Every structure is written in C-alpha cells, then in structure tokens.
C-alpha cells in the first residue's frame, strides 16, 4: 500500500513540475494525459486524491496566479497577459480573474495594497509546513546603502536569484576591515516596472548610519519609517533562500490574509563568527503589511 501511495505521489510531483514549466502551453486534460501516459479519468482521480484539488482547477488557478504577479510587477498589456496564459479573449480572462480574486485585472493592478487572497502556490509548497511568522512593529531605521538593479522574469520564478544577492553583498562588504555585527538587505519590487514580462528589482546592502563611516560616505541615506511587518526567520544554505521568499508570498502571507503595503522587504543579516558568509544565511526577513 505504501509503495502504491509513494508511486502516486511521485507521479503527481513530476506532473506539478511539468505544469509549472508549461503554464503558457496546452494544459488541456487530453494533452496532459498524453504527456504522462495515464488515462484522463485515472489522472484526474490520482491528482484530486493527492492534492485535494481537481487537475483542471489547479491548472486554471496556477495560471491566474501567474497573471496576478504580472499585473502587480509589470506594465504589460492586460490583453497580452490573457493571450500569454491561454485565455481566448480579454473578456474571458477578466471574468475568470474577478471570480478568483474578487477584482478586475485593472483594479488589481492599481490597488494600493497587494492582497494575496486567491493566489495558489505550486503544490510542492502546500505540502510544506507554514513558516514561523510573527507580527512586529519596527522602529524607524536610519541606514546608508547604494541600490543595485537586476532584471527578473515572472515566468522563471517569483523573486530574484540568490546569485545576484550574494554578489551584491560581497561587492559592498568585502572592502570593510571588520565585518559588521549586522547588515541589511533592502528589496524593492515595485518602483521599476517594465512594459514586458520582465521586471526590475532593486537590492540595497545597507548599514546603520553610525556603524561604518567610510561605508556611509560612499552610500546614499535611506530612512525606513516605523511600521508593521510580518517577520520570518531563515537559517540555512543560501541556495534555499529563493524558495523561502517565494513560499512567503505564495503560501504564508495568503494563509494569514495579510495585505502587503508599499515599502522595502527588509533582510536583517547577522553574520556568524564575525564573518560575511554568502553561502549560509542567518537572517530575519520582514515584509511590510497593513
């Protein structure tokens, strides 16, 4: 019995990854069943038993979740987004989007807050335990740092790669004679929207203003106002950091019905043994919430 269950889970996990790679392609049940070599009836039964969601519904909601990210992170035309993800018209897309997110695509894009209600994460995130989350009121921060931009694609992941993050940390802090007891990573997803499906992320490595004079002289002043944040903790190999952040946005925040307000995501890094180690992160991750 366990072998059968394990086989079923392997089939579903492989299918979920294939769906993620083909959200812009043909996700009809006929095409999916041909790809995996099972009958439509058997495939739907196995998928529903493992995930609790009908296969067709899962594909539809994953596509809609991708369109929601495109709407929030880019200025790509709504019609083009609808066509990209397999809707036969903008009207059909608008109806499906409003049914799932309770807003039209246009209203969702223009909303002051990012309401993650209705986002469906990939199944492999839902299998994982929810991250430990605490709500804090952050005091004002007076920082200095210099922003660096990188271009990202919604289709290839919900947040930017750890390679860019670690290179930026290394380039900004390697010249310091003494490693700081803590440093900050400020992430801005919202100010550099692109017309196409790519978007730019600003990442700033920052120190408190009185922490290092030479660093401050080479940097811009950044003031973080007091506010409410959802706080998460990460301790582990940096290669897992991207999935950690993606799960926050696709699983953890929606589960708690939290609204993301404008502002930086704030990483508070605490180097171990007074050494900057870009292979292992020990940090708090703060998301500004209403």
From TrEMBL:
<dbReference type="GO" id="GO:0003700">
    <property type="term" value="F:DNA-binding transcription factor activity"/>
</dbReference>
<keyword id="KW-0805">Transcription regulation</keyword>
<dbReference type="InterPro" id="IPR020449">
    <property type="entry name" value="Tscrpt_reg_AraC-type_HTH"/>
</dbReference>
<dbReference type="InterPro" id="IPR010499">
    <property type="entry name" value="AraC_E-bd"/>
</dbReference>
<dbReference type="InterPro" id="IPR018062">
    <property type="entry name" value="HTH_AraC-typ_CS"/>
</dbReference>
<protein>
    <submittedName>
        <fullName>Helix-turn-helix domain-containing protein</fullName>
    </submittedName>
</protein>
<dbReference type="InterPro" id="IPR009057">
    <property type="entry name" value="Homeodomain-like_sf"/>
</dbReference>
<keyword id="KW-0238">DNA-binding</keyword>
<dbReference type="InterPro" id="IPR029442">
    <property type="entry name" value="GyrI-like"/>
</dbReference>
<keyword id="KW-0804">Transcription</keyword>
<dbReference type="InterPro" id="IPR011256">
    <property type="entry name" value="Reg_factor_effector_dom_sf"/>
</dbReference>
<dbReference type="GO" id="GO:0043565">
    <property type="term" value="F:sequence-specific DNA binding"/>
</dbReference>
<feature type="domain" description="HTH araC/xylS-type">
    <location>
        <begin position="13"/>
        <end position="111"/>
    </location>
</feature>
<dbReference type="InterPro" id="IPR018060">
    <property type="entry name" value="HTH_AraC"/>
</dbReference>
<dbReference type="Pfam" id="PF06445">
    <property type="entry name" value="GyrI-like"/>
</dbReference>
<dbReference type="Pfam" id="PF12833">
    <property type="entry name" value="HTH_18"/>
</dbReference>
<dbReference type="InterPro" id="IPR050959">
    <property type="entry name" value="MarA-like"/>
</dbReference>
